[in-house]
Amino acid sequence: MKRRHFVAALAAWPLSALAGNGGEALLAGFQRWGSGEYRRFGFLIYEATLWAGGEDPLLPPLALKLTYQRRIAGSDIAQASVREIRNLGLVDEARLLVWGEQMRRLFPDVGPGDRILGLYQLNGARFYFNERLLGSIADPAFARAFFAIWLDARSSAPDLRAALLKRTPA
Q: Is residue 2 in a domain?
């Protein structure tokens, strides 16, 4: 019986290592750039880290990981994303309505320590929740607009943007 438990634990070891690494296995080939905190009314909402697949952290492929510090409903994450994209003035309301519904179906409720990793690719965006694939939105315009929330010069969180774009020494 003990041997069976040992063999099962040994077989699960690589999976537990992946789960504990915060998604870095999904980021093979990416270079870490910067990280920072997003606060609202003084409360820490999430910590963000940016990775780039090339030398320019503003061009795909890139990845953004948000590690949440509070409980937030997935519908609230989608609604805040829509509001931020709207404030940037990047798309019309009809398209924003479609994207909002897609995000509401995609984003889960989060709690302290949960991670959402977004991958910005040329053909759209793919999202992971605690290293598990949530799904994707195969629309390059959506990917540009979504990641502009953090990376556009008009971001509502300029200090976080600056921290993300400040390259971390290797």
A: no
